[in-house]
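User: Small ask, check this?
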Amino acid sequence: MQKTPFLHASRFFPALFAALMLLILAGCNFTITNLTPDTVPQNPSQIYTITGSFHPDSNRIDRASIQPRIVIDGQSYKMTRAGVAGDIWEFDYQIPAGRTGASYYFICNYTLDGGDRASSNEIYSELQTMKIVGRYVLRPEATRAPVGSRVSVLGAGFTPTDVVYFDQTPTRTIFESPSSISFFVPNVEPGRNFKLSVSGAGQTLDVGTFRVDAISFQVTPSALIIRAGEQQAVTFTIPTAAPAGGMLIEVNTDVPQSVIMPEVIVPSGQTSVTVPVQGGKPGMGSLFFKSSAGESSVSVTVTGK
């Protein structure tokens, strides 16, 4: 059966592994340690590996006699040893459809050498619970980038209403699929770290920290003189190739009725992009550009036909 990637789960829920419960059982002959986190990420097969350590604390215990079992949802199942030797045993359990968790406990039978005779023993663990989480963050595509960069976040349970935040600053967020969303690094102060989070569906998910780097760009030509209805090309150049997903350059104008232009995104791996600027109603003003390294502008004059 397919195993649940608990190694990945430790990435998203590190505190859970630090809080694993050590169960010391009667007779001081045996120690059972539950190695399964109490919260695990959902997987498509709904099969989850429950793992435990069954360690004899006495040389009088016959290791070959150790027979761990798990009782889950009222049913008892034999566990299998994880590897050729050792104290780690595991069991793969498929959670019924529609369920978001399970309760279980361990039972272990073993033989104890009493000198003149051997005795059979059976011990129990305390009741354990496992919660299945269908909405979580795996990792961001990058942990640092300049303003305007598009960065993806991988996980599960994302919705079109999710918004990525830099501290308290919302970003332009794009829903790609339930397992992926992306955002454009907002125009915030460069050279420092921000707390990254995903908020939506009544829940906020912690993504980690993100560092914003400074970058500058050039715009040519330095002035635009165009007639209403005509177009003129404007080129934006950045010093290094745009990251995966491209780089968004924020453009504003004080004459919105006079200027018609598309969104400016430098394609991934490129250092420049050229976009058409079309004249609207006659007027005079400027195009304003923001980057993490500063601001600049280009004058615009739109004349009649």
